[in-house]
Amino acid sequence: MALNNPNSDEKYMRLALELAARGRGLVEPNPMVGAIIVRDKTIVGRGWHRRFGGPHAEIEALRQAGAKARGATLYVTLEPCCHTGKTGPCTQALINAGVKCVVAAMMDPYHQVRGHGFATLRRAGIRVRVGMGRQQARQLNNPFIKRLATGMPYVIAKWAQTLDGCVADRTNQSQWISSAASRRQVHLLRAGVDGIIIGIGTALADNPQLTARLPGNKKPPRLATRVVLDRQCRLPLTSQLVHTAATIPVLLFHGKNLDPAALARRHKLLQAGVEMLALDVDAHGHLNLRSALQQLGHRGMTNVLVEGGPRLMASLMAEHLADEIHVYIAPIILGDAQARHAVEGQFIRLAQACPGKILVLQQLGPDIHILLRPPA
Question: Which of 18, 28, 58, 344 is catalytic?
């Protein structure tokens, strides 16, 4: 029985979107998808894509619904697939189950699906409606959509700063500007990405682990690759990153045409288990950041977190490569003109600056957390 009550439709699609979000950090590079099957105004099946390579949301919901799926309506956050990949086509499973109506939030942008799934269902006599919850579904799968469109991962920039915009004092000391509450949220961010990127300056100053340490000693769903932009291979063999490279991947981007000393350091880092990739260097001596992101996209990375430092952030902003920014502002004033600031780029006038859009503004302990979309 197909439902026509808009309020009911919205309720079931909202539930499907909530289910889809449970796959965050587990399904990439696939999209997050949730599904609800409703018959006679009763939910008879629920499902979501739980892990990469596992059953799709529609299949999980159909298994739960069983014979009750016949004549029912499926609410799904993404167009059902119509090709055979790691699993069989969901469209055929829906046809075989006797589903009568499919309400989908959006079309799947993947070239092997992209409208073909809907067409397959319609040819089988299944009613299809598309668009309810589209904006929320797109937001949920922005990383998947961006990688398909550009070949690059979705880029999340993050920093913690004082009220006067400092991310470290003049000695490069930055631990800890932000509160424990802010740091807990950062660990949740780390747990949901494929890669965590820093520059060599941050690696040398902070000697970070770049791992996700979740509350209750929970293990993160996956171990993000730690990525270091290090033109001259200066990452110390004694660093925490190198010490853990055998168990948690470390990828180091360096410049081409290394001098003999840098080549020797490169060889030792390779022996220690660090993966190395060469990139072009621009006229200012900076690694090509866009090329680095393209390389990460080729490796199947859907989303990455950039954690610093100030010059890397400046390059990210200057080239408009960040998709969202998380800023954690502590109620501290450093008041030092020689302290390090969040973004240290080239001179521009105030009139040249473009405003971003604030998406979230919240208090975390004593800190303020701002999530914004950067200037286009």
Answer: 58
Q: How confident is the model at residue 245 (pLDDT cuts 50, 70, 90)?
A: very high
Q: Which of 81, 73, 83 is nearest to 41 (CA)?
A: 73
Q: Is 58 a catalytic residue?
A: yes
Average pLDDT rounded to a whole number, residues 36-46: 95
Characterize the bridge pairing of strands 127-130 and 101-104.
Answer: parallel
Long-range contacts from 220-224, C-beta under 8 angstroms, 24+ separation? 220/25, 220/190, 220/191, 221/25, 221/26, 221/191, 221/192, 222/25, 222/26, 222/194, 223/248, 223/249, 224/190, 224/191, 224/193, 224/194, 224/195, 224/196, 224/305
> Tell me, what's the pLDDT at 221?
66
Using a cut of 0.70, tell me whether the model's pTM lies above it: yes
Average pLDDT score, the chain: 90
Task: Answer whether 55's CB lies under 8 Å from 79's CB.
Answer: no
pLDDT-derived band at 1 (thresholds 50, 70, 90) equals very low
What are 86's two structure tokens?
């790691």
What are the tokens at 30?
């696939």
